[in-house]
Design a protein that fits this description.
CATH topology of the largest domain: Alpha-Beta Plaits
CATH architecture of the largest domain: 2-Layer Sandwich
Number of strands: 12
Strand content: 15-25%
CATH class of the largest domain: Alpha Beta
Order of helices and strands: EHEHEHEHEHHEHHEEHEEEHE
Structural class: alpha/beta
CATH superfamily of the largest domain: Reverse transcriptase/Diguanylate cyclase domain
Radius of gyration: 34 Å
Bound molecules: magnesium ion
Number of helices: 10
Strand order of the largest sheet: 2-1-3-4-5
Largest sheet: 5 strands, parallel
Helix content: 40-55%
Length: 319
């Protein structure tokens, strides 16, 4: 938050008035005070430091108080600074004009010290409460964003987690229902991952998971999504992509993984992955479509690993 001490700017073209008002505040409050003898000088001051409150005279040569007030109200930087008019102009229409210009209060001269102080203190307190509320809201929003990020991200790899990609698939599926078309889903899994952990330790295993997420991400288009589905299993969603292209992408990923030499601490090794490719089929729904990708992956594992297996698709979706 900003400075603790309240800063009050007093604007009046009459120096005697500034002195009287300044003394009343000095004797009764611990506010920091600043003074300006014209609207122009007030703006020059406010450009340098923002007051918490402005006490504003109306009749001044040059820019008058109403103009100063409405200018401050229009500016986003200064619109929440409470402005109290302190003036000899006591006609009802002047008072109305003051409020219309954006003033929060209107005090006519000669004023009663105690009453004026109460009014000033009230608005200073309200301003402080608003500022605090705003700060708390900001903190709350930041905390909420953090929680949301944590809830939707796989902490090890930094990519979306299962819940996140499930949400995204639901969105893709409704888009397909509206506009037709389909999307590809690739379920893939690191071959013999347990052996990596057993041979080199879990730190190396974690490194491999991160490295794999990284390689896959680099080989995808911007609209594609990769998520850690669980353990050493990843799910990739390719929006608006038919199964042939899903297979092509998988083949490219399979090669990139196979070619990569992984280096962690003193170990140098390479790994392979097996891929099962399916598309979202409207009559099956998301879960059963994923199941088909999963079954294809299983087939790939059964028949030697390090390969891409395409699920059988009954109905060819067309765009
Ligand atoms: Mg004046």
């Amino acid at each position: 938050m900003k400075k603790d001490k309240t800063l009050v700017l007093i604007v009046d073209d009459n120096k005697q008035n500034l002195k009287v008002l300044g003394n009343v505040l000095k004797e009764n409050t611990d506010y920091n005070l600043a003074f300006a003898i014209s609207g122009e000088e007030a703006f020059a001051y406010i450009n340098k430091s923002l007051p918490d409150m402005v006490l504003l005279d109306v009749m001044m040569p040059g820019m008058d108080g109403f103009t100063v007030c409405s200018e401050l109200s229009k500016n986003e930087q200064t619109s929440d600074i409470p402005i109290i008019f302190i003036t000899a102009k006591s006609e009802t229409e002047d008072i109305i004009k003051g409020f219309e210009a954006g003033g929060v209060d209107y005090v006519t001269k000669p004023f009663n010290d105690a009453e004026l102080l109460v009014r000033i203190n009230t608005h200073v307190e309200m301003k402080k409460s608003r500022d605090m509320l705003e700060q708390k809201n900001k903190e709350l929003k930041e905390a909420y964003d953090k929680i949301e990020y944590l809830a939707l991200t796989d902490m090890l790899t930094g990519i979306p987690n299962r819940r996140n990609i499930t949400n995204m698939m639901n969105k893709e599926a409704s888009r397909c229902r509206r506009n037709g078309g389909t999307f590809s889903m690739i379920m893939c899994d690191i071959d013999f991952f347990k052996k990596v952990n057993d041979t080199y330790g879990h730190d190396t295993g974690d490194f491999v998971l991160k490295r794999v997420a990284d390689i896959i991400q680099k080989n995808l288009r911007q609209q594609d999504i990769i998520a850690r589905w669980g353990g050493e299993e990843f799910l990739i969603v390719l929006p608006e992509t038919m199964i042939e292209d899903g297979v092509r992408v998988s083949e490219k990923l399979r090669e990139s993984i196979e070619k990569d030499t992984m280096e962690y601490e003193e170990h140098k090794f390479s790994i392979t992955m097996t891929f099962g490719v399916a598309v979202y089929e409207q009559d099956l729904g998301i879960e059963k479509s994923i199941k088909k990708a999963d079954d294809a992956l299983y087939q790939g594992k059964q028949s030697g690993r390090n390969k891409v297996v395409q699920a059988h698709v009954k109905l060819r979706n067309s765009f």
